[in-house]
Design brief:
About 7% of the residues have low confidence. The chain has a five-stranded antiparallel sheet with strand order 2-1-3-4-8. It has a three-stranded antiparallel sheet with strand order 5-6-7. The chain is built from seven helices and eight strands, in the order ααββαββααααββββ. A hairpin with a 4-residue loop joins β5 and β6. α1 runs antiparallel to α2. By secondary structure, the protein is α+β, with helices and mostly antiparallel strands. The protein starts with a helix and ends with a strand. The longest helix is centred in the first third of the chain and has 14 residues.
Length: 240
């Protein structure tokens, strides 16, 4: 049984999305079962997250200062029922469509400034480069991609909170697909709307380049990690 199959079975059998403690139990059980497993370089194409049991839509992710404690569905007909306390406790915007889900940070990294992705050129022997557009679009491995960027010298101006990472190209396209609804939720809670501008993603094209997504038109291309500047919007897992 693969690690993915273990995680899916735990979530399907034991997790109740309305009870965060059951999700935490599944996470700890998964970590115990897979402890000591050899970590491999990220594959060009990765599987979707297993997320079930609650409706598709946009969510306000609520936090007690340490971890996610609850989430509230955000829609035109639910706005009036959301309290000021819930707005103040919101730390991210969750988006769920089918088996895809992630949480978008309230603000861009680097105080909203355009910034290079890395401080220097990668010189490692890395198996995770994806120079084919079709494969890059299918990449949903932002967390692992970001770990590699950190290893080679992620720009120090890109400060990521615990659990946050730079989205892969597939994840950023998912954000782009839901951009209007995500931005409405961001504005509602006082976050910074995602700009119609150039955003870095963590999917790397080569030792020199990484992919980016130009949101006004939705096209992607590779740019030099250590010299080209762009915006960065961190994301995190809805269920981790």
């Amino acid at each position: 049984m693969t690690e993915k199959e273990i995680k899916m079975q735990l979530l399907d059998k034991f997790a109740n999305i309305e009870k965060p403690e059951t999700v935490d139990f599944c996470r700890k059980a998964y970590e115990f079962i897979t402890e000591g497993e050899t970590k491999q370089a990220p594959a060009p194409v990765v599987a979707q997250q297993a997320v079930s049991g609650f409706p598709n839509g946009i969510y306000l992710i609520l936090n007690d200062g340490k971890e996610m404690t609850d989430f509230v569905l955000f829609a035109p007909d639910t706005k009036d029922s959301i309290s000021k306390e819930q707005i103040n406790a919101c730390t991210g915007i969750g988006v769920k469509q089918g088996d895809w889900a992630l949480v978008v940070a309230l603000h861009d990294a680097a105080n909203g400034e355009e910034i290079t992705l890395t401080a220097k050129k990668d010189t490692t022997n890395y198996a995770g480069y994806i120079d084919n557009y079709v494969d890059a679009v299918a990449n949903w491995n932002g967390k692992a991609n970001t770990e590699h960027l950190k290893a080679i010298g992620l720009n120090k101006g890109i400060e990521l909170k615990d659990g946050q990472y730079i989205p892969a190209l597939g994840e950023m396209y998912f954000v782009y697909m839901n951009l209007k609804a995500i931005n409405a939720a961001l504005e509602f809670v006082g976050g910074t709307p995602i700009e119609r501008d150039w955003y870095w993603v963590s999917t790397e094209f080569s030792a020199t380049n990484a992919w980016g997504l130009f949101l006004p038109y939705g096209y992607a291309y590779g740019s030099t990690k250590a010299s080209t500047t762009g915006l960065v919007r961190p994301v995190s897992a809805f269920i981790s």
